[in-house]
């Protein structure tokens, strides 16, 4: 393949660079993976309505976001175990996000620690919290606060882990299970294997400190075995304890979004976890249409964003910004940190092109008027 020019090109290269089990971990979804496909297919049904003869000689992709502007309406979303794609992945994603001026969300299940990521860049960093148990959640939140993270993203769509059959078939887990199948996958991907062996195999970076180092937490995190009793009262209590911005990720109903706002959340992320949890939900970009943020609050969305035009459509439907999950990981797998820069640049160029062609020079002016 020549120079990759689209996120899909990067996806194809990622498939060739990663061992099958790792690519499957990134790519896979729950059950029959209809949700993964539906997230993408939703964009085919949302059509743009170009306005003729608008003055579009200068375009502006920046959008207002709480008390500041984002230069692009993008956030690098949380992806656990990204070090299985490439050693140092979280640091690379954080630096690439900082270069683009967009926030990076560090997963609870990251392979680098909160403190390492804090040191990696001066960019804006958010911490995504999984409540495995209350003590660990308190300790992670405190560490994030101490390390300078000022936005907490509570993920609520993982009361239990989704059933991802690719991972079950491949026996994918941390530590890597050295099965003949896994070895066979590594043998045909020598560059990946060498890098992993050189660096030391990935582990959960946030759970290897003296405080959090216990095998049961690691196992719980691998199984994504959350405290399934966490409910609305606990959200309100977390709101009381966390002194800065709080977003709730994994909301799929307008009523739940309203309840999050009523609890004091500053924003919600409409998300079905990239189709990795419940297989048969609507696409988040379709749910978005029914959710409105009260004044001063934000609605973000993720799931299936692979084109700049997808982002434009979500903004036209009322999103304040879009989280990227798999797209940056494709760039990372293909070309490391430069690949993440390139994926962001591709989306930026596509957004700019789309804005010009639909006659909307400013991303912040997108509205339903630009949808057919
Ligand atoms: C995820 N996602 C995720 N979400 C979260 O809140 N915490 C996490 O640790 C992870 N881990 C994770 C790993 C991998 C490999 C993927 C692909 C996804 C979900 C992620 O934040 C986001 O919601 C979806 O990935 C969005 O869909 P797309 O952009 O991947 O289609």
From TrEMBL:
Ranges where the FMN hydroxy acid dehydrogenase domain occurs: 1-372
Gene3D superfamilies xref list: Aldolase class I
The keyword Flavoprotein appears for this protein: yes
Source organism superkingdom: Bacteria
Pfam families the record matches: FMN_dh (PF01070)
Keywords of this entry: Flavoprotein, FMN, Oxidoreductase
InterPro entries, sorted: Aldolase_TIM, Alpha-hydoxy_acid_DH_FMN, FMN-dep_DH, FMN_HAD, FMN_hydac_DH_AS
Cofactor: FMN
PANTHER family: 2-HYDROXYACID OXIDASE 1 (PTHR10578:SF107), S -2-HYDROXY-ACID OXIDASE-RELATED (PTHR10578)
Similarity comment text for this entry: Belongs to the FMN-dependent alpha-hydroxy acid dehydrogenase family.
Name the UniProt record assigns to this protein: Alpha-hydroxy-acid oxidizing protein
UniProt source species: Aquibium pacificus
């Amino acid at each position: 393949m020549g120079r990759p020019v689209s996120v899909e090109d990067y996806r194809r290269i990622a498939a060739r660079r990663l061992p099958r089990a790792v690519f499957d971990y990134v790519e896979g979804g729950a059950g029959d993976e209809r949700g993964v496909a539906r997230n993408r297919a939703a964009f085919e049904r949302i059509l743009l309505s170009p306005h003729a003869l608008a003055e579009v000689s200068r375009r502006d992709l920046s959008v207002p976001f709480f008390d500041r502007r984002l230069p692009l309406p993008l956030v690098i979303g949380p992806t656990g175990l990204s070090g299985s794609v490439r050693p140092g992945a979280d640091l690379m994603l954080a630096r690439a996000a900082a270069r683009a001026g967009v926030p990076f969300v560090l997963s609870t299940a990251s392979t680098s620690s909160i403190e390492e990521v804090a040191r990696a860049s001066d960019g804006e960093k958010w911490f995504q919290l999984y409540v495995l148990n209350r003590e660990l959640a308190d300790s992670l939140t405190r560490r994030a606060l101490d390390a300078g993270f000022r936005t907490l993203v509570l993920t609520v769509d993982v009361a239990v882990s989704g059933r991802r059959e690719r991972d079950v078939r491949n026996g994918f887990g941390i530590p890597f299970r050295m099965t003949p199948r896994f070895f066979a996958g590594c043998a045909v991907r020598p560059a990946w294997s060498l890098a992993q062996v050189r660096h030391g195999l990935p582990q959960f970076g946030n759970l290897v400190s003296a405080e959090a180092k216990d095998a049961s937490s690691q196992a719980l995190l691998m199984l994504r075995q959350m405290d399934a009793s966490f409910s609305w009262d606990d959200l309100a209590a977390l709101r009381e304890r966390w002194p800065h911005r709080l977003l709730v990720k994994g909301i799929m109903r307008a009523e739940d979004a309203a309840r999050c706002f009523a609890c004091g959340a500053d924003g919600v992320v409409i998300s079905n976890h990239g189709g990795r949890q419940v297989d048969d939900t609507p696409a988040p970009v379709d749910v978005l249409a029914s959710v409105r943020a009260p004044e001063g609050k934000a609605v973000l969305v993720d799931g299936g964003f692979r084109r700049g035009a997808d982002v434009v459509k979500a903004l036209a439907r009322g999103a304040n910004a879009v989280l990227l999950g798999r797209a940056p990981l494709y760039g990372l797998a293909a070309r490391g940190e430069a690949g993440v820069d390139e994926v962001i640049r591709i989306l930026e160029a596509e957004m700019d092109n789309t804005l010009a062609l639909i006659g909307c020079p400013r991303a912040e002016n997108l509205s339903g008027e630009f949808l057919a």
